[in-house]
Amino acid sequence: MQNFPKLTEYIEKLHREKNARSCGIIIYKNHEKIYEHFCGFRDAACTEKTNGKTLYNMYSCTKPLTVAAGMMLCERGVLSLDAPVAEYLPEIREAYVIENGEKIFVGENMLVRHLFTMSAGFDYGITSRPITELVGKTAGKATTREMISAFTALPLGFRPGEMFRYSLCHDVLAAVIEAASGKRFADFMRENIFAPLGMENTYFHLPMAEKEKRMAELWKWDGGVMRLFGKANGFELTENYDSGGAGLISCAEDYAVFADAMACGGTAKNGVRLLRPETVKYMAGDRLSGFVAHPESFGSVVGAGYGYGMGVRVLTDKSYGAKAPLGEFGWDGAAGSCFSADLESGIGMVFTEHLFCWPEAQGGKVHVDMRNAFYEDFNG
User: Fold this and answer.
1) Model pTM score
2) What confidence tier does 379 reach under pLDDT thresholds 50, 70, 90?
3) What number is the average pLDDT over the span 3-29?
4) What's phi and psi for 186, nearest 5 deg?
């Protein structure tokens, strides 16, 4: 493996000075692992060192895999980006907006493409009354499909296609994938992504006893104080609900294999082709401009210079300081993990950590600075 001293120094600084109690990074170039570095301990007692198999709640790093699964079905001809969502989920016809005090049904106008691009009008209200009532009514057993009715019980924030809003769109996409494939979402992901790529330590649900044995402690930056936070994932609305937006549990070794596949045009290091190169390029293009009415509504926690593709932010402007090549794409999670793929150089990387409120604790541009440290040493 290669030496990247600036990146090593940066990761060490995150650990020593920026509250990354357990973190790690793995980088591939064209299927060859060229770098890895791990810091800290899985447990609060500091007895078990972090390694590539340490588990993390990946939260929104789930989204790129969900989108990849959806694009697989598009390639197979069983899902269409321009089809109405109601063709797969009839209950979406009940989606509505409130305009001038009037209830207007707009579900028929919601396209599958709106789910991929976060422009369907949903929000991220996982504690809304309809959701909590359905969870209670089903004794915590409502399925991914059953939860859709709760999502449409409250008004959308806008008509589908008007603007970008970070939301439950990819959870709804998971239900569409179930309908189109005829399989439970978690099963589809295991059979079509995890198992083929050899991601043996990646899951959608894991018993708490297993989390305690294998998962890094989850911390929260709370007004300048680090506090332990339980390992349960609040986005797993029930034991039968597979969150396509935030439900993934994985480790650096596993997720790096997916990142490498995406950086290599959809083909993994073991030769398995997840997606065609043109499909990956399409995902990694700016898909809001010319499609939604207000594409400028997209914003990224890592700062300016990014557009939004299909489940990923895409570097479109380097004038704000990013040193990665144009077209570099990826996403991050609520506890600080992030992934990046660069088709130009064949670079796929994943960083894992477990810190809620990481932008406040570490600085909002932490992932850009991390990539910059790498590309400053990277000579191609």
Assistant:
1) 0.97
2) confident
3) 96
4) -60, -40
